[in-house]
Amino acid sequence: MSYALGLTGSIGMGKSATAQIFAEEGCAVWDADAAVHRLYDVGGAAVAPIEEAWPTAVIEGRVDRGRLREIIAGDSRALPRIETIVHPLVAADREAFRTSSPHDVLVFDIPLLFETGGDTGMDAVACVWIDAETQRQRVLARGTMTVEQFEQILQKQMPIEEKKARADYLIETDTPDHAQAQVRTILAQIRRLIADA
User: Fold this and answer.
1) Distance separating alpha carbons of residues 60 and 118, to the nearest angstrom
2) Among 25, 125, 154, 44, which residue's Cα sits nearest to residue 89?
3) What are the distances in angstroms from CA 61 to CA 50, 89, 97?
4) 15 and 44 together in one domain
5) Greatest CA span in the chain, whole angstroms?
6) 190 and 111 housed in the same domain
7) Helix/strand/coil for 43
8) What pLDDT band is residue 155 in, cutting at 50, 70 and 90?
């Protein structure tokens, strides 16, 4: 039986980079965002039900995320409907990963882990974090969103102090070397738990 470690944090805090460190340290990583991309791509399980509900959202056999955002912006009922389609498919993808991976530690990279109650299915949760000013600089330096969009995303996410309080492990992502050292410490503890079980 594998050990399930949830990995979460807020936007711009280095979660994807930290997930990569876990992968380099011999863990299998399941990425919630990547799962949604697979479901929306050609042949993905979400394409047909979304096309049935919103025919204009599918272009050349794949869900167009830009069109989907427009639909959500224009219809308050759209997002809950999309979630009823996508969430069970994401859960099935996650379960397939969990049952098929031979690795001892499985890392579940889920941005809204606490917000969606996903932490209940984990053996432990690691939360990446950085100070608010560094977070803001990182996000805005990407050049992919405005200050307003960044603020909107923050409002949808649980405050980082609350996530940190609920997590079993904390990983400060101030430098890559520091993050890697913390990941190695966490994995050493988890692998000792597995060995003693």
Assistant:
1) 33
2) 44
3) 11, 18, 25
4) no
5) 54
6) yes
7) coil
8) confident
Distances (CA, A) of 134 to 101, 140, 142: 35, 10, 13
Instruction: Provide the residue range defining the domain that includes 41.
Output: 34-102
Q: What is the pLDDT of residues 92-117, one digit of tens each?
A: 999 999 999 999 999 999 988 999 89
Cβ contacts of 191 within 8 Å, gap of 6 or more: 104, 105
Tell me if 6 is assigned to a ligand binding site. no
Known binding residue 15? Answer is: yes
- Summarised one tens digit per residue, pLDDT across range 164-174 is 999 999 999 99
State the pLDDT at residue 92: 94
Look up the pTM and report it.
0.89
> Which residues pair with residue 108 across a beta bridge?
6, 30
Residues 81-100 have a mean pLDDT of 93
Statement to judge: residues 157 and 178 lie in one domain = yes
Q: Which of 102, 120, 139 is the last residue of a domain?
A: 102
16 annotated as ligand-binding: yes
12 is in an annotated binding site: yes
Is 14 annotated as ligand-binding?
Answer: yes
Distance CA 168, CA 102 (A): 24
